[in-house]
Amino acid sequence: MKNNRKDSIIKILMRIILIVSSIIFVFPFLWSIYSSFKTSREFLENPWMFPGQLYIQNYYNAFIEAHMGNYFLNSIVITIISVIVCLLISYSTAYTITRFNNVYTRLLKKTYMSAFMLPAILGLIPLFLLMHKLGLYDSRLGLILIDITVILPFSVFVLTGFMAGISRDYEEAAVMDGCSRYGIMFKIVLPLAMPSIVTISIFNFMGIWNEYIYGATMITTDAKRTLPVGLVNLMARQQYHTDWGALFAGMVIIMIPSITIYLLMQEKITSGIASGGIKM
Predict the structure, then answer these.
(1) What is the distance between the alpha carbons of residues 238 and 234, in angstroms, rounded to a whole number?
(2) Cα(58)–Cα(279) distance, rounded to whole angstroms?
(3) Is residue 2 predicted with pLDDT exceeding 70?
(4) What is the CATH number of the domain that holds 174?
(5) Cα–Cα nearest to 68, from 236, 222, 215
(6) 16 lies in the same domain as 98
(7) What digits encode the pLDDT tens for the residues 147-199?
(8) How far apart are CA 181 and CA 185, in angstroms?
(9) Which helix (H) or strand (E) holds 109?
């Protein structure tokens, strides 16, 4: 009886903790959503109350007048290109590291693992100087190359761990059937590695989508800015006459893509990390 009561108390406490944690994490998101439909007057009167009516004009002000639509397009282009190129490089690298054991692949693996352990912010000044010398400063291409560089070590780390656990029997059978090395990579191993590929794609998408430091440092032209940078600059320009409704609408525009992708693919994220990240 005592053990049963103890287990019941523990379960109740765990549920209370989970409920409180859920409220703490979910409430700011819900508050941002309903605040994006309020007028600035309503927000200043009581920021916690629901709007009297849905003020859709905030999204027009954010998307058109504040150029959030242009920032959104820049973020989409930069994020998608960076994720795709990173996948191609990281997949080829991980396959090489796990299938060829020599001094060069071991050195390559250690290099990527070392880069993965270092904070990305350490490369801010060297990359800033390098972009200037290459003539890529204040360009979308330069920002794409930087984003690929930053997310590549993590991608190689996860893919290497996952592909190390893929049996080579399939590849040996494919070789006996006359399949080429590239055929093995993309017809045999690629489908088996898809859970980890989906995982790193989602993580990389969210990381680049929300990236601010490099976007603010490497881009100076307003038309080339990404969403996070554009939103901060919008608030700075408004100064003392802040349009709170438009700012919250901009925040919602930034949050919706990453949250939607995460909610739709959360099971694949968990399974990919669990099966790949622990086999290094």
Answers:
(1) 6
(2) 48
(3) no
(4) 1.10.3720.10
(5) 222
(6) no
(7) 999 999 989 988 888 888 887 887 888 888 788 888 888 888 888 888 888 88
(8) 6
(9) helix 103-117
Distance in angstroms (rounded) separating the CA atoms of residues 66 and 120: 30
Two tokens, residue 206: 């969210």
**Has residue 53 been placed in a domain?**
no
Please report whether residue 59 resides in a domain. no
Nearest to 41 by CA among 243, 210, 201: 243
Q: Is the dihedral of CA 88, 91, 92, 93 positive or negative?
A: positive
- Of the listed ranges 16-20, 143-147, 160-164, 255-259, the least confidently predicted one is 255-259
Q: Residue 280: its pLDDT value, please?
A: 44
Domain count, the chain: 2
* Identity of the residue numbered 202: I
Amino acid code (one letter) for 76: I
Q: How many CB atoms lie within 10 A of CB 65?
A: 13
Q: Say how many C-beta atoms besides its own lie within 10 A of residue 148's C-beta.
A: 21
Asked whether residue 47 is domain-assigned, the answer is: no
For residues 62 and 246, what is the distance between their CA atoms, to the nearest angstrom? 5
Its domain, for residue 28, covers 2-35
Please provide the size of the chain in residues: 280
Phi and psi, residue 114, nearest 5°? -65, -45
C-alpha separations of 65 from 62, 217, 250 in Å: 6, 24, 11
204 and 84, same structural domain? Answer: yes
Residue 57 domain flag: no
Between CA 42 and CA 53, with CA 48 as vertex, the angle to 5 degrees is: 45
Separation between Cα atoms, residue 96 and residue 135, nearest integer Å: 32
- Give the pair of three-digit tokens for residue 151: 């997310």
User: What does the block give as tokens for 180?
Assistant: 């080429």
The amino acid occupying position 57 is Q
Q: What Rg, from alpha-carbon coordinates, does the chain have?
A: 23
Structure letter (DSSP) for residue 121: G
Which two structure tokens, joined as six digits, stand for 29?
A: 């998101």
